[in-house]
Amino acid sequence: MRENLREGYTTGSSATAAAMSALRVLLGGSKPQSIEIPLPEKGTLVIPVERVELEKTCARGVVIKDGGDDPDATSGHEIHAVVELISDENEIRVEVSGGTGVGKVTLPGLPVPVGEPAINPAPRGQIIAGVLKEASMMTPSLTGTIKVRIEVPQGEAIALKTMNARIGIIGGISILGTQGIVRPFSHASWKASIAQGINVAKAAGVEEIIFTTGRRSERFYLEHFPNTQELAMIQAADFFKFSMLEAQASGFRKVRWSLFIGKLVKHAMGFPYTHAKDWHIEFERLARWCEELDIPSAITKEIAGANTARQVFEMIPQGSTQLFITTLIDKAKRNATSFTGDDSMSIKYCLFDFDGNMLK
């Protein structure tokens, strides 16, 4: 991770702050400039409050989601919480629901039941804890039901920039955040997305999952295999080992990878994580593999000093291209199997060039 990147806060933390500030005003307090919220696991966080509006019997709190320096489709957008108190003599309790811009779950395999708003368990618990904390501070003897409705005015538009529809979250975004804090370029969010996609695919009865390394490798795959179930497509990015282990843990027996030459070489070299920042191609080792394929020494010497896998691929003599690709795929399969320790899994690879032609 790069240094000096600014942390942010999750949609769950934003919703918690909006709900707590709305309740404060509803119970007669003044609108806070910022509010201290509980985090899902431990600790607290102070979050700025944009505004609070009274609406008849309700109060609406608004917080601007700030993802820090993390690339996040929700960052800069308003997260709302509409809070209403239904007074009775029963012990205080909190009900959380989703409104405009919060997606609904339509497929099994997610941590939220089908038909419910896509507010994950950790942020749901965070919202409830924050509201109860605020209630006890404002009115210790309060009784009744506090209803909290989370809304995201631009949620439906934001969701178009996410993978929500593919995993069955329709009509808006998810309210997420297991820790409450967004740490820039964290691996955790990618891993959570991969695991979630695998779980949804399994619950939907998908038999073979296709891991892609990005949107382009996904698009090329679907162009060649248009009948592929969309739920089967999972963007694994650089997480080679993690994705294989998650597939195995979920009981998948068939896995396919759709990628380009650079990632294939890294799979062949057994890199568990393939981002260029952390794992560099060993060109001398690649040159030795080419020597074993009887590629002329004049070329293998150039390969040893190459800069990119694409450059190497262009050096391979035309008559040796398919053998070179097959060798890389065979090595990649062995590494994938070594991660899982299960040689009964069927693992296949589809290699594309940068124009979308399938090379293998």
From TrEMBL:
Enzyme class: transferase
Catalyzed reaction equations: Co-precorrin-5B + S-adenosyl-L-methionine = Co-precorrin-6A + S-adenosyl-L-homocysteine
Known pathway: Cofactor biosynthesis; adenosylcobalamin biosynthesis; cob(II)yrinate a,c-diamide from sirohydrochlorin (anaerobic route): step 6/10
Keyword Acyltransferase listed: no
EC numbers: 2.1.1.195
Alphabetical UniProt keywords: Cobalamin biosynthesis, Methyltransferase, S-adenosyl-L-methionine, Transferase
Gene Ontology BP annotations: anaerobic cobalamin biosynthetic process; methylation
Family statement drawn from the similarity comment of this UniProt entry: Belongs to the CbiD family.
Protein name stated in the entry: Cobalt-precorrin-5B C(1)-methyltransferase
